[in-house]
TrEMBL record:
EC number of the protein: 5.2.1.8
Organism for this UniProt entry: Cryobacterium fucosi
Domain PPIase FKBP-type positions: 37-123
Keyword Isomerase: yes
Catalytic activity reported: [protein]-peptidylproline (omega=180) = [protein]-peptidylproline (omega=0)
Alphabetized InterPro entries for the sequence: PPIase_dom_sf, PPIase_FKBP_dom
Pfam families per record: FKBP_C
Name used for this protein in its record: Peptidyl-prolyl cis-trans isomerase
């Protein structure tokens, strides 16, 4: 049973990183559905695919984050719509849908990233 009231834990991935966005529902929500133009309230955990090192987590800050989907990385813009409030989804985001190729100026450029996202609200 997945506890949506606690920070998710991720097992280290095996095999090469996927080249396309991978979307896996861990828990299917029953609330309002996120649409491409929505603003979402989420808790999330982000780790690097290659190392499994955590690079960001709203859980560590003790509060969820509210974002317009259109302002987020392409992997979130493509991977969150269709998700329903109360759900937990795992996104594996290749570099071209995250922070671009290596040398792109962001510390995560060139990295495939894994996010576990809990959708708390949609507006």
């Amino acid at each position: 049973m997945t506890d949506l009231n606690s920070k998710p834990e991720l097992d280290a991935p095996e095999g090469p990183a996927p080249e396309a966005l991978t979307v896996t529902d861990i828990v299917v929500g029953e609330g309002a559905e996120a649409t491409p133009g929505a603003t979402v309230d989420v808790h999330y955990l982000g780790v690097e695919y290659d190392t499994g090192d955590e690079f960001d987590s709203s859980w560590n800050r003790g509060q969820s984050i509210n974002f317009p989907l259109g302002s987020l990385i392409a992997g979130w813009q493509q991977g969150i719509p269709g998700m329903k409030v109360g759900g937990r989804r795992r996104l594996v985001v290749p570099p071209h849908l995250a922070y671009g190729p290596a040398g792109g100026g962001h510390r995560l450029s060139g990295q495939t990233l894994i996010f576990v996202i809990d959708l708390l609200g949609v507006s």
